[in-house]
Amino acid sequence: MKKQPIYILGIETSCDETAAAVIKDGTEIVSNVVASQIENQRRFGGVVPEVASRLHVEQITLVIEEALQQANLQPSDLHAVAVTEGPGLVGALLIGINAAKAFAWANGLPIIGVHHIAGHIYANQLVTEMKFPLMALIVSGGHTELIYMEEHGKFEKIGETRDDAAGEAYDKVARVLSLPYPGGPHIDRLAQIEGEAVDFPRAWLEKESYDFSFSGLKSAVINYSHNVKQRGEQLNPEAVARGFQQSVVDVLTERTVRAAKEYDVKQVIAAGGVSANQGLRHALQKELAAANIEFSVPPIQYCTDNAAMIGAAGYEMYRKGCRSDWTMNGEPGKALTSWNN
Amino acid sequence: MIWLGIETSSMPLSIAVMRDEEVLVELNEAMHITHSQRAMSAIDEVCRLAQIQPKEIEAIAVSEGPGSYTGVRIGVTLAKTLAWTLNIPLVGVSSLQVLARNTMYADGIVFSYIDARRGAVYGGAFHIQAGEVISPVLEEQHLSMEQCIQQIQSYSQELKIFTVSASDAFDEVLREAFGERFYPVEKVFSVPRASQVIRLAQEKMSTTSVHTFVPEYLRMTEAETNWLKEQKSNE
Question: Smallest CA–CA separation between A2 and chain B, in Å?
């Protein structure tokens, strides 16, 4: 007898993307819909939480409907609804959560609350099998973390940022360089152009630490740009972008490779918005290949926020028997804890 | 016709199931539990008590605001998702009319308002007689209590003013303005009831397009207001 496939509907609204996706057996994307608010939020130079919440309400049912239509599935074909529970903007999270509850209740489906970072990690399941033990580097606008995983659903944070997230530093430096929002991809693009680089410091912290710090680097870039302007000289944005990116990438790569060796992992995965950064991807690829450790990073469209990753993580939680109930709340500061049913 | 009514526009929660004009079950809470934690469970409980399966609901009525942004959004998100996935009509009604309807047999001006802080309210008022609206007095909007009083005074200097609100912060100001004509209604009539949400929806007759349905905030976000100001000053 042929095994029945398990379909999970994933929903994600933790920041400025309204997203829904259907995932088959945890690894196959049947549909993946993302309605981005970037165009609307650009005029504010960042994500305004109240605006984000309002736009999610406008989009949510359209996005879920589109995901089901693209998948050519009925609600009765689904096995569960997985939704981002946190961390994120609370008002934004609540739209996805309440839509997920109403949809699940009306269709007699269980609901599963997924940690946003677990989602980013499980985005890798959509392209390659996760091999344990593994080390995950999470880099985004809100997070910079190294997470050790012995098996599915077991998360041990071994390092994190002590101040700014890497993506936050990217956004701030982009503003200094007057690059459009969101700035990360622009810095990455400038940094790829051959040429000189401004020498910025690297925050190595204690020798054995796996933590990160980017606020000093950010200040160094701001000071440098002030000084150049005060001298009445032209700022060379490419040289600044290169120098800044080299500093970030050096630290992220050193930490990740050292952690991977120390913990003797089979695989390193990168996840989160900043893992779309070409400079970082190349550096990790090169250094991990030299260390003979398998490296996996999702295609760029699954690095940024999406619901496919929530569906992928939701599938493993579903198999483990994890279920939430109708009282699920948005948890803006939710910690990544291991799964238990 | 089986209706589900949802009211989450301010702190109290109200969920009702009605068959036509008959209330089968109504739940009213003022327990200061977030709507996000409580609303869906309450819908589940009320439907169980009414012995109604989700698929038996034939129409959804929701209080669309004004009120707490987050509260209204939770109600509207639940309502539009249910209406869409169950493929049934959705009707949004004003939270101020939901309050006013509690006092629909008053004879005079019914003034319902929600405290919007910093001296401002979301307010609306109607001239009512024997359960019928004679005329609108104050169009629903976000404004200062002072402006509300002015508009009501300019409509009538004689009629009684029945105020319906969860707040009593303005009672002194209102008493000063209207004197003997001021009738703050009892707290029990200031509860926003999901049964009234459904009754208003039944009277309204017109359904809304589910996908495009959004709350009536009655206010732009601060970020948008500032952005527009900047655009104007740059012109």
Answer: 30
